[in-house]
């Protein structure tokens, strides 16, 4: 599953850059073509972000990447009680 998400991530970011470039540098395209390029670039952007976040979560869960330094609920509540006046 991780490999599939990684492939989707690469394809999504490639689509974002390719269609974003087309949308920004379109000299002789019609308005419809520019809008379609911009929409495809936006889809690539959002899909790439979601796939990247999913890959980061899977890497933490598998032990490949270091866990984030987030406090659990009990430790967070103790810290907030200690800091209050």
Please tally the β strands and state the result: 0
Strand content: under 5%
Radius of gyration: 20 Å
| Cα separation of the termini | 49 Å
Total count of domains:
1
Biggest sheet architecture? none
Average pLDDT, all residues: 89
Helix content: over 70%
Identify low-pLDDT runs. Answer: none
Query: How are helices and strands ordered from N to C?
Result: HHH
Total helices: the number is: 3
- Which descriptor suits the 3D outline? elongated
Please identify the structural class as seen in this structure: mainly alpha
Transmembrane segments: 7-24, 36-56
Keywords: Membrane, Transmembrane, Transmembrane helix
Task: Describe, in short, the structure shown.
By secondary structure, the chain is an all-alpha fold. It has helices at about 1-25, 30-60, 75-85. The chain is built from 3 helices and no strands.
């Amino acid at each position: 599953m991780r490999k599939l998400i990684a492939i989707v991530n690469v394809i999504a970011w490639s689509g974002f850059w390719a269609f974003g470039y087309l949308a920004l540098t379109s000299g002789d395209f019609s308005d419809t073509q520019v809008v379609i390029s911009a929409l495809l670039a936006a889809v690539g952007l959002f899909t790439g972000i979601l796939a990247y976040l999913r890959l980061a979560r899977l890497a933490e869960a598998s032990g490949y990447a270091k866990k984030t330094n987030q406090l659990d609920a009990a430790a967070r509540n103790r810290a907030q009680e200690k800091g209050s006046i």
